[in-house]
Amino acid sequence: MRLLVSVRGPAEARAAVAGGADVIDAKDPARGALGPVRVDRLAAIRRAVGVARPVSAALGDACDDATVEVTAATAATAAGLAFVKLGFGGVTSDARAQRLALAARRGAAGETALVLVAYADWRRAGCLAPARLPAVAAATGAAGVLLDTEWKGVPLFTLQSPDAVAAWVAAVHAAGLFAALAGGLAGRDFAMARRVGADLVGVRGAACVGGRKGRVSEARVAVLRSLVRATPALPVGALPLP
Known about the structure:
Blueprint: E1 2-7, H1 10-19, E2 23-26, H2 39-49, E3 55-61, H3 65-79, E4 83-87, H4 94-108, E5 113-119, H5 122-125, H6 133-139, E6 144-148, H7 156-159, H8 162-174, E7 178-181, H9 190-195, E8 200-203, E9 208-209, E10 215-216, H10 218-229
Parallel strand pairs: 1-2, 1-8, 2-3, 3-4, 4-5, 5-6, 6-7, 7-8
Antiparallel strand pairs: 9-10
Helix pairs in contact: 1-2, 1-10, 2-3, 3-4, 4-6
């Protein structure tokens, strides 16, 4: 299992790298669950990380094909990203989700992979149920699926039982994709994430002093990383990350 830490700027990116995060994720927590950072800020994060770690970026929730394609292309071209994350808040049709995912893939192109984001609180978000996203991801050539929460007041394992999350992870793996979990996860949730089979865990608030809108702390990331290191190692090449 690997650790992804979401950062909003280069200083936080350096702290996350120093703390031992496996993936540095560019995201603006003030703009929602998948708030994208400005392009110049994304480039600064990429420069701060250099070749030390793969960098990913949130694209936000999909709205229309053209916007998604341009946003993905701009992010991927500007920063040389390992992958981009696309959400589907407000999207209730599998066919529309596929069109939007394909637009993101066209935009990212190159070596940048696509990760689709399902919301555990999907009814409140007015979007597809998480069980429907693995098929959409497989049909559109995505590399993985992330199960997250759009609203950050209730953690993932409160919204979804461990058995339900385990079944979802198994479906993602059956589709040939990697499975990531996020949404209010703290260090105590890592053992559960491992037990349900997650390949990647993503955090923001647990890595910060002052909550998810605070600042990423090297010391906090190091503690989280030690918990990840206590989990069984993935086989080489298990995730499509450089």
